[in-house]
Design a protein that fits this description.
Blueprint (H helix, E strand, L loop, with lengths): L17 H6 L22 H4 L1 E4 L3 E5 L9 E5 L11 H22 L3 E5 L16 E6 L7 H4 L9 H12 L3
Antiparallel strand pairs: 1-2, 2-3, 3-5, 4-5
Helix pairs in contact: 3-5
């Protein structure tokens, strides 16, 4: 119907994402702590900034626009954009904090899976390409639906502050 050879894949059309794609290059580049939203978390109030845990080289923060409840990001304190620019200590701690985040999220919410990854550069889909961050997105059986596509609405059943409190409280337990 749309042309081309059948490849066996179903398509999930998300035309609402084109606004993000088209306008992603309109934002000026964040050049440091005074502009970068992730750099402001380095010295700010943890609860206000949604910082769940602080390590030596990196911190864990709730995503302000989560894909799912408990969507975390692991970020180095240093304003660095590329994984290849991370120091060995930053890289290693990002991995350890990602593991810890998985354990805490499983303990607190009973998640059955995760999406973990980094979007590198604007073209790679990074919303804040100038500050390295790894996403840790908890997933549950049946958590996908068409509400974001049809209703242009994302259902997040828990307030960010409530999620912050549950994850912060559980961080040292697991």
């Amino acid at each position: 119907m749309m042309g081309g050879e059948a490849d066996g894949f179903e398509r999930l059309w998300t035309p609402h994402r084109m606004a993000y794609v088209r306008h992603s290059s309109d934002r000026p580049e964040y050049t440091g702590a005074h502009e970068c939203p992730l750099c402001t978390k380095v010295t700010g109030d943890d609860r206000e900034g949604l910082v769940v845990h602080r390590g030596e080289h990196c911190y864990v923060v709730l995503n302000l626009y989560p894909y799912n409840p408990g969507h975390l990001m692991v970020c180095p304190y240093r304003h660095v954009g590329w994984y290849t620019e991370a120091t060995d200590a930053e890289r290693d701690e990002m991995g350890a904090l990602t593991q810890a985040a998985m354990r805490v999220l499983t303990h607190v919410s009973g998640t059955k899976g995760f999406n973990i990854g980094m979007n590198q550069g604007q073209v790679g889909g990074a919303g804040i390409s100038e500050h390295l961050h790894q996403h840790v997105v908890p997933r549950w059986t049946g958590d996908s639906n068409f509400l974001p596509i049809i209703g242009r609405t994302k259902a997040v059943p828990e307030l960010l502050d409530d999620t912050w409190e549950r994850l912060t409280s559980a961080w040292g337990e697991v």
